[in-house]
């Protein structure tokens, strides 16, 4: 199984709103090509480019899994013209109930239905060898994670916003949840299953006996064009979150 993080999630907010920089993960199992979440508007120009750089045609993607229907995870499904698009049934029903939830643009679901390729997932299923869906409610009613099992890697959960960051995985306490108790229960379950968690908005996390470890850093760069701040060259503003860990709160 090949697991390739196309975009690393980044934890953070800005004074002008949520950064909403979420994880996008590419999976390849045998001949099956899967994309887990499609990013938001900020990533729009980079999505086709990053797949092209990897030598992967967007036409070849077989399955797009949307962890939930917030704009920063589900915006770019239209780049994958041949993919089945999986969304949990509970999320579909919730979106159709017209919830008062600002991260869901009202025009987005009709566009998804119009593709004719939306498939509701009603129970946990294996979508490819070693790739199972996991209903992970809390953040939204129909959050769906993926559990990856293979003898060449530790059990890995692609969590989406069921786990947004290190703090949420360690404490079970979450921000922006439709149901805090459901979120806490989902997080307990993910900690039991996973050795590695790729969260919605943070570094790759490792689950140890008593702590969660973020062993890598995550960095992004804001580029101010040449001639604006510095005369001859772009000014680069580096955003870095260093490796760290946190004890699990039982
Ligand atoms: Zn979300």
UniProtKB/TrEMBL annotation:
Residues 21-201 form the Metallo-beta-lactamase domain. Gene3D superfamilies: Ribonuclease Z/Hydroxyacylglutathione hydrolase-like (3.60.15.10). Its cofactor is Zn(2+). InterPro entries: MBL_superfamily_lactonases, Metallo-B-lactamas, RibonucZ/Hydroxyglut_hydro. The keyword Nucleus does not apply. Keywords: Hydrolase, Metal-binding, Zinc. GO terms for molecular function: hydrolase activity; metal ion binding. The keyword Acetylation does not apply. Pfam families: Lactamase_B. PANTHER family: 102 KBASES UNSTABLE REGION: FROM 1 TO 119443, QUORUM-QUENCHING LACTONASE YTNP-RELATED-RELATED. Belongs to the metallo-beta-lactamase superfamily. This is Beta-lactamase domain protein. It comes from Thermosinus carboxydivorans Nor1. The lineage of its organism: Bacteria, Bacillati, Bacillota, Negativicutes, Selenomonadales.
